[in-house]
Amino acid sequence: xxxxxxxxxxxxxxxxxxxxxxxxxxxxxxxxxxxxxxxxxxxxxxxxxxxxxxxxxxxxxxxxxxxxxxxxxxxxxxxxxxxxxxxxxxxxxxxxxxxxxxxxxxxxxxxxxxxxxxxxxxxxxxxxxxxxxxxxxxxxxxxxxxxxxxxxxxxxxxxxxxxxxxxxxxxxxxxxxxxxxxxxxxxxxxxxxxxxxxxxxxxxxxxxxxxxxxxxxxxxxxxxxxxxxxxxxxxxxxxxxxxxxxxxxxxxxxxxxxxxxxxxxxxxxxxxxxxxxxxxxxxxxxxxxxxxxxxxxxxxxxxxxxxxxxxxxxxxxxxxxxxxxxxxxxxxxxxxxxxx
Length: 340
What we know:
Elements lengths: L6 E5 L3 E5 L2 E4 L2 E4 L2 H11 L3 H30 L3 E6 L6 E6 L7 H15 L2 E8 L5 E7 L5 E5 L2 E13 L2 E11 L6 E11 L4 H12 L2 H19 L1 E3 H13 L4 H7 L2 H11 L11 E5 H14 L8 H15 L12
Antiparallel strand pairs: 1-5, 2-3, 3-4, 5-6, 7-8, 8-10, 9-10, 10-11, 11-12, 13-14
């Protein structure tokens, strides 16, 4: 918790825009960056076009007065509380988070996290946190006697784990799969949200613990992933889906030649063009190369094994998320069963 940036819960009406990048917070003037200002405007309902129009008509002073007027009017209808975050380095306000129900302090969250471990018998195996910007903490829980589920030849998944994710406004519970992607023990985690709560009262705590202790918590996850695996293994990928995955790779900085080698979209498209069947409006109806599961494997293998990035480079995670997104979506090409 010592790594988290300073945060404070205040009434939204206690924030007043003085002008330019200066705000008054409960009577104390402090500078703020653009992220804070944009987040504040979203909370009180001022869009970018609205901001541009008011500033164009009335100047910076007019925009300041308008922002303060909207804030006061909003809080007269229903008082709102927010968490403001400040950088200890720049000494500026950097973020503002609306409190949906009640403020959840990091101390309360860790008390709950310890209770979860005691009640379920699971151990906290990993802690990740973001100290700058929106504060967030993610705890991973593992059963030391965890199960491995075999979906198919070489498709080993460790299914017996869950996570708790915190920010000042809510706590999220979810289960995760750890996939054994190669014989050296390399794993890839895929998370699935199960519930979110916006306060940690005794009732919410009891429900979340009960959910994890339920026999259905992990069983449902296995069944859900089993269905995705079966569908992806039996579904031919479409040319459109190949194109989307290749664009995703290029957007993450993968060279075109490498992206085409992994997902040969242009090669397959050229085959359709040569045969006279290509129509760019019907790519979702054209069969690509291999199944959705084949492409998922290609993407996850590249994300975990490529030497072009550092081990913890965020682009590896982005590609993994793109692969999981492909797995979750309804396939373009549906397989039918018939007697003809």
